[in-house]
Records
---
Amino acid sequence: MSRPAAQSSDIAILQSQSLTTLVQRELEMRIVSGGLLPGARLNEIELAGEFNVSRGPLREAFRALEQAGLLRTEKNRGVFVRAISLEEADEIYALRAVLDEYVGRQLAANIAAEGVRELRALIEAMGAASTARNLDEYTRLNLTLHDRMVELAGNRKLVDTYRRLVKELTLFRREALSADSNAIPTSTREHREIVSAIAARDVELAGRLMREHVERGRARMHAAVTAVDVAEGGAETHTP
């Protein structure tokens, strides 16, 4: 027996929404991981074929990612991965410093013992990744730690805002950024100090350390960009 028309329509809508969500998540993962670089043009036909979906769900995914600040649409040109400027990255860091200070204070005041154990376990995993010089794993754990800290702060609106800022910050990329060999060990030490302050219920110290951690990250970003600019300028100077 055939389904009623209304029921068939409902199923089609659910299938379309599910496909849109799957496509959106896959594209977002590629953007955040660097698989799709800022400025890259998304080919609608190729992606529809790759994902084996019609253009409808794909376009819905594009719109959702544009609203999330990860894509931009140019009339008569297509859809592109957003690239943000140093100035915009600066603004994101400044806002994150304020939010992270709030998170540190909230956690020190309210976190449960289980939450402290969870954060310490992540710190230990980050230490292992640092020792193994596994930058990809360290970066993943770093993002996981901060995201979990924001979740444990207990403010859902903050979680949404924070995640958008973190995703947008991944759009700031410069080629050949020189890696600071001390950056990961320093970052690990800073995280340990933050979690220790939270576990000790020291609200003022936890908030201050969180803010300073973000400010140091901002300073490292500026130092890396300056180093690249100097190197590129030197290369241009010596070009015959």
Note: The chain has nine helices and three strands.
---
Amino acid sequence: MVAETLMPAPPARLLTPPGVYAPQWDTGLLMQALGREDIDDATEVLDLGTGSGAVAVHAARLGARVTAVDVSRLAVVTARVNALLAGRRVRVLRGDLTTAVAGRSYDLVVSNPPYVPSPVDRLPRRGAARAWDAGADGRVFVDRICAAAPTMLRPGGVLLIVHSGLCGTDETLRRLTERGLSASVAERAVVPYGPVLRSRRSWLVRQGLVDADDDREELVVVRAVRP
């Protein structure tokens, strides 16, 4: 049976200007999974698609040395300000997923990437939808992270990635396993549809992704370990 999970409180005084993804259920679920990891002041964490910096700041609060990346200039500035307000040191870089940290590896990689299936397969280059649209199957960024995971992680390193069950939990597990990682679902939660899914309900029904009377989705955090 899938248990519901309440989102932990975001860091105090967290700024989320228009155009930057504000912490939601998925953020809380990822923060919860992160809190279960063995983290100390030697742990190096990479947060891909940091948005407001909520997860990066949370990792820093747990004692980790944190690098955060986002493709949005506004998100980069926002994450830097939120880290400053929280009194935590977070290195925030601008880049498209791993491009800003090419050649580096980490003990722990966390990501809350865009994962919402979209009627428009072309990815937005600006605007709020950039934080959630991920192609017709919702897997554009999830698949890229799965492909990069073996080189991003040090031996024994852990990947934590959160996404909706709508874009295929089994597919994520399969891709990570094929790349030599030990993958499993670490957290699950069933949450109400947000504004984006509500606005796309008719399209999602036509695609066979949801039933007409569905109003809740399953979120998962997939945990993968490099041997």
Note: Residues 25-225 form a domain with the Rossmann fold fold (CATH 3.40.50.150).
---
Amino acid sequence: MPDTDTSLHPFQTLTPAFIMDAVESQGFRCDCRTLALNSYENRVYQVGIEEAQPLIAKFYRPGRWSDEQILEEHRFCFELAEHELPVVAPWMNPDGASLFRHGEFRFALYPRQGGHAPEFDNLDNLLILGRMLGRIHSIGAVQPFSHRPVLDSRTFGHEAVALIIERFIPQEYLASYQAVTSQLLEAIDALLADFGPLRLIRTHGDCHAGNILWRDNAPHFVDFDDARLAPAVQDLWMMLSGDRQRRTAQLEALIEGYNEFNRFDPRELRLVEALRTLRMLHYSAWLGSRWHDPIFPATFPWFNTVRYWGEQILELREQLALLDEPPLELE
């Protein structure tokens, strides 16, 4: 069952006064306006600044990342920005620091970036996104992360499934869940073994529509909080949707733009459904592991219901079938 600890969660101490004090500790003067933005893993606020544009203050979830891992994410963003890529990098103070502390929290400040979610059905947009990702990955491939993790089947698959079985799955669905996840993980591990060594590069890691702001016919990539070593296709597959014909057209637009600045290895298309399956398994475990945070039960009330697990098992069975289908191909 979910964690029912009723003690005060650290994020519940993030009052408007605390948030403004944190921002003002870096030399800014707040105008007393704070607006909570959609964020679950961390807490993110728009903070008004007197006689200046508002700032975005991001307070990191305690215990998730080490200082070294956060700073490595920041350095990746700075590196991309130095190459004039459209990423929203953290603000750096005159001493060159980008990670700050106030009370028990670590936080970073960002310039506010307007925009809307990109239209992935628009092939011209996908061509532009492909170009940008090709450039991002050409820099991401220069050197690896030293502190940030690798996207692998152990953490996103085996450990996620173990947590769900131990703490969440209802007894009536336990056998079915164990059976389908065992088959999925066996199939994914076999695919990865057959694929051979992966070319792991620094990636955004969570490149969905909510982390891309479209403005003036160009994308701006935000929230590198899940940046990790992964195959290049990890930053591409979440932009594909619809039937096979439509996904193929979307893929071709993406890769056409990508190949203008980098070379995409088409063999990685074999990994798409495996990566999608790992994301599904990890998502359930992520919800479960955060259930003691009050915002999660309030935002995701359907999680851990009997209906949820019944639908989840059906979706995982569909993924098992998709893993047996031939991958998308470029013409």
Note: Strands lie at 30-36, 43-49, 52-59, 100-102, 105-111, 201-203, 212-215, 218-221, 228-230.
---
Amino acid sequence: MDILAPNTASDAIARRAETLDTITAVLPIDRRDKLAEILTDQDVETLRHLVNEGMGANTLRALTSDLAYLEAWALAATENPLPWPAPEALLLKFVAHHLWDPARRENDPEHGMPANVDQALRDGGFLRSTGPHAPDTVRRRLANWSTLTKWRGLDGAFASPALRSALRLAVRAVPRPRRRKSAKAVTCDVLAKLLATCGEHSLRDLRDRAILMVAFASGGRRRSEVAGLRMEQLTVEPPVAGEDGSPLPSLSIHLGRTKNSGAGQDEVVYLTGRPVDALNAWLAAAKIGGGSVFRAIDRWGHVSRRALDPKAVNDIVKQRAAIAGLDPADYSAHGLRSGFLTEAAIRNISLLEAMDQSRHRSVQQAGSYYNHATRRSGLATRLL
């Protein structure tokens, strides 16, 4: 961060905050003031350029979050702004500060992230967890650091043998078991228990039922996609014939560009039957005719005009699990995504058909849910 006189610095922060206001649709605006303090003028200008270039909202949020963290870490670790391009020594320091051995730390307090750096990041709200970072988090931040460096027309040392070796050895020295985003999948039997906790009349019950059913039936949509869903993305489709021949309501959801789609590609998924009814019931009760589909509800039953926070989708899953008598620690919003594919496998729906709805691009990743379901119930597990 540039060192400026008090008044000049305050003016610069205010200017950056105003600029960030112009791109609130894709940035975590609840942290606008903190971002304005941490990011430099060039950082903010880069972000605005990326918005104008049409970068995906989720990708830009991740870049912004990582950039703010890197800026805060550089100030805490070196007492200087983040340099562009970063020298190899700083990249190695970043790895050493974030991937370390807790057992060695017990006997060597200097091992890993220094206490003063750790405290500075916690005081700023940039660090919450304890212990070394997950290797994937470190790799992602290094990758985004490299990307931001290239966008500035600069070359970095991100491909240096020393950095690759340090990262590989650090990961090997501190093995971390891969944890699932949701300990258990929300399959139809679990979903039925969650839905049973939703009444028929209160706005909160109607909203939560619609969220659960839409998120699951639309292929296990990510919580950011559910929270950010807007009325303009919904299109009423001709009814679909049910098993008994009766017409079932149908609509399409235009997801636009998603995490797995290519640039300019509009991903579309479909809802049929009960999920459509649940969604329509919520929209009618909340009197929503445009804008955000899912919104916060205050204690007096007033529906907000702003979109629901993605974290709230996760909270809803856990709250409904607790009311249903399940352990909320076992379930999260991602359980709806894994549950959709697991349920599809159990019902012998073809993998390609399920992927067409979930919008997974990797057969290997989507197929892992099928393999797990098949192995658990297959003949090979019942030889005795």
Note: The mean pLDDT is 81.
